[in-house]
Task: inverse folding
């Protein structure tokens, strides 16, 4: 059975300069988000406000290793724009779990 993982992400300080030089980066990341969502892997994602380059992704995976592989497949990781401080933790939802996983 798939588990839920919360992925707290942050971009590197040079991220906004990189985006200016590589406008395709955001489109690649958005396409990755959409693909993972359609596959049922990415359940939701979004930015923290006030926006400072941090956010949260909620993904489904069999284990922590698979969750790390999913995160590593992101264009943000591939392009070196995700900070090493990204944190992946198993998330046990007690109330509202049915919104994420049909049991």
Result:
């Amino acid at each position: 059975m798939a588990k839920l993982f919360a992925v707290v992400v942050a971009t590197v300080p040079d991220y906004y300069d990189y985006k200016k030089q590589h406008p395709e980066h955001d489109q690649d990341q958005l396409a990755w988000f959409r693909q993972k969502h359609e596959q049922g892997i990415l359940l939701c994602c979004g930015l923290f406000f006030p926006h400072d380059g941090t956010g949260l992704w909620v993904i489904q995976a069999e284990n922590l290793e698979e969750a790390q592989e999913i995160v590593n497949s992101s264009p943000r990781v591939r392009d070196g724009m995700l900070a090493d401080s990204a944190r992946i933790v198993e998330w046990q939802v007690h109330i509202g779990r049915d919104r994420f996983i049909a049991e």
Remarks:
- The chain has a mean pLDDT of 92.
- The first helix runs from residue 15 to 21.
- Strands lie at 3-10, 42-47, 54-61, 87-90.
- The two ends are 9 Å apart (CA to CA).
